[in-house]
């Protein structure tokens, strides 16, 4: 049931540098690249607003760490459902239309969060935002994977992934500016209000991004697959292993990133503004990690990228959370922590795209990635509830190290897909 060959014609291989792929892109590939990069970056902006303002919310509405973490879990659980639904929808109405719908959805509900009157309302709005948040990645990753040629796919999709760090960085800068200009009880509402910005991306996508020809051809000549087609015996092993890979990748990331601002506040005694440099170095490391992962995904292969970065993430997380180090060393360790805890995502999009045949690619990629998100979504809540008994540092380490160990094992069990050529 696989429709991908395993090699790329030698004549088509471009330069091996990180940026060489961009010079060799067609206009369609470039427009798709910028549309997905913009959407993913602004997706990161919207999602990271909540972890940045969570201490304010907990103080203003007297919310405990457990319920505050559960709100993030609810968002991620909803995003898992939204991601699978968007994958199925993209197989039926197209990648581009689905991408537009999801961007408009999460922009609207991020904006509405600014008007929440109590924590229960905020949880509901964040859950509704999650449907679009999860769907945007599913549609965009498939769109990129099918539009970009195989010899650039890892670098191009990985470079798009780096836009998440840019969106995260914009959120941190906005936090520093807004919290300096406004009282905390107003500043968090202003933070959510800027989440409407991604809606502007839809105007660009409508005018400039076509549906991939391979997807159009597949929908024309094939019977619509069953919603359960990804559990067909021919692809069941791939679906299971890819789902476990995603659990490890996303569980580890959420365990580290979501509670890190609160960890710096509680364990390192840093204020909201005082933690900004620590988050900035983490984001810089994350951005460099994404770009390095993009290059390594094409140079070494997707599997080797996952194996190396999972081991690096385990080592840096243990050092960051378990060693009795001064704040100056914590600041320095932020760079490798961001590098290893984020960079492997550059290989996730192309890898999942290449694992599944075209007719079920949207649903296969949407399900496996978002199954991982659903399970990983439990980690922020569990860490929040365990914090009172074992502390933030220990709780983060337990879940993050376990997740990255699973990531390593699943990557080892899956095949290498570098240079696969996709067909209808």
UniProtKB/TrEMBL annotation:
Residue ranges annotated for the Major facilitator superfamily (MFS) profile domain, each copy included: 32-418
Gene Ontology, cellular component aspect: plasma membrane
GO molecular function term, any single one: carboxylic acid transmembrane transporter activity
Transmembrane region(s): 33-58, 70-89, 101-117, 123-143, 163-182, 188-206, 227-256, 276-297, 304-323, 329-346, 367-386, 392-414
Subcellular location: Membrane
Gene3D superfamilies: MFS general substrate transporter like domains
UniProt keyword list: Membrane, Transmembrane, Transmembrane helix
Topological relation to the membrane, as annotated: Multi-pass membrane protein
Stated name of the protein: Putative 4-methylmuconolactone transporter
Upper taxonomic lineage: unclassified sequences, metagenomes, ecological metagenomes
